[in-house]
Amino acid sequence: MGLQRILMIIGLATLAVVAGLWLQLRMSAPAVPPETNATLLRTARPIEDVRLQDTLGNEFRIQQLQGRWSLVFFGFTHCPDVCPTTLTILGQVAKGLSDLPETRQPRLVFVTVDPERDVPAVIKGYVEHFDKNMIGLTGELAQIEALAAQLGVAFQKVPLDQGGYSMDHSAAILLLNPGAELNAIISAPHTVEGISEDYRKIVEFMDEQS
Amino acid sequence: MKHFLSIFLLILIAAAGCAKSSQPPYAEDPWVREPPPGMSMLAGYMILHNPSSTDMTLTGASSPDFAAVEFHNSVVEDGVSRMRQETSLVLAAGEALRFVPGGRHMMLIAPGRQLSEGDKVLIELSFADGSELHITAPVRSSGGH
Lengths: 210, 145
Hints:
Oligomer: heterodimer
CATH class of the largest domain in chain A: Alpha Beta
Number of strands of chain A: 10
Distance between the termini of chain B: 52 Å
Strand order of the largest sheet of chain A: 1-10-9-4-5-6
CATH topology of the largest domain in chain A: Glutaredoxin
Shape of chain A: elongated
CATH architecture of the largest domain in chain A: 3-Layer(aba) Sandwich
Order of helices and strands of chain A: HEEEEHEHEHEEEEH
Helix content of chain B: 10-25%
CATH superfamily of chain B: PCu(A)C copper chaperone
Strand content of chain B: over 45%
Strand content of chain A: 15-25%
Helix content of chain A: 25-40%
Shape of chain B: globular
CATH architecture of chain B: Sandwich
CATH class of chain B: Mainly Beta
Number of strands of chain B: 10
Largest sheet of chain B: 10 strands, mixed
Distance between the termini of chain A: 55 Å
Number of helices of chain B: 1
Structural class of chain A: alpha+beta
C-alpha cells in the first residue's frame, strides 16, 4: 500500500468522524437563542423568596411575581437623573408592548435601595408617576439586600460633602420569567427600542422552548 | 476694477474669520424633567454652546425656583451607576457641552413649589469671567420636543 493511499484513508476516516460528530451535535443542540443586547441566561436562575412591602405597606413576597414576565429595576427616589430616566423608559416600553396578549405583557417593578427614606407612601406617588401599574417595593434593608444579591445587583450608600447621602446602584434592568426566576440581564445604556426588541425576542424564544 | 473689488471682498471675509469672535454662550433645548409628586431632586438638561473663540469655565448655577443647583455626571462603572459632582466645567471654544439624561446634568435641589409639565423655571449659569447666562427651561415629562 502506497503512503499516499494510507494518507487518503486516514483523511477520509477523519472526515467521516468529524461529519458524524457535527451531525450529532446539530441534532441534539437546543434552538439557537436570539441575538439580543440583553444577556440571556442559559438556565434561568431561581430566586429564594424574600419578604418586602408594597406601596400600601402590605407584605409582598417576590414569588408573587409569578405568572407574568417582570422587568425589575433597583433605584431610589432621591435619584434625579438615572432612576427617572430608566423608569420613564420602562413606562414607554410597557406602553409599546401593549399589543401583546395580556399574559405576555411585562410587569414593571421598582425596588428601592434606600428603604430609610423610601417608605411605602413615598414610593407610591413615585412609581405611579411613571406607570400607573408599576409595582413599587421597599422593606427591611436585609431583605432588599438578599434579593439584590441573588439578582447580581450591587448598591452602596455614599455620603455627600454637603450632608445627606446618595446611593450608588447597579444600572441594569433584570428580566424575570413567569416562574419569578432571573432570565436575562439588560445592561445600561437603555433605550425604549432596545429593551422592547429584546423583550419580544426573549419571550417568543422562551415560549417556543416550552 | 472688478478684479480689485473681489480681492478686497475676499480679504474682508478672511479678516472677519480671523478676528476673535466674542459671541456669548447659549443653551439649546433646555428642559427640566417633570418630577414625581413630592420629589426634592430634579434634573435639568440642555446643550450648552460656546460659539466664541475663547474657552469659558462654568463655575456655578442658581435658580430662584430651587434651593441649589449643582452639576453632576452620572457614570456607569462596572455596571454600577454613580453620580459625581463637578464643581467647574470647561466649555471649549467653538464646542458644546451636552447635558443629557443618564449623563451630565444639572441637579436641581429642593424646588420651591410642585412643578409640572408646562411650567417654566429660570436657571442662571455663572462663568469664571464674571458673565452670566439666564436660561428659561420648560418642565417636560421626557426629552425631545
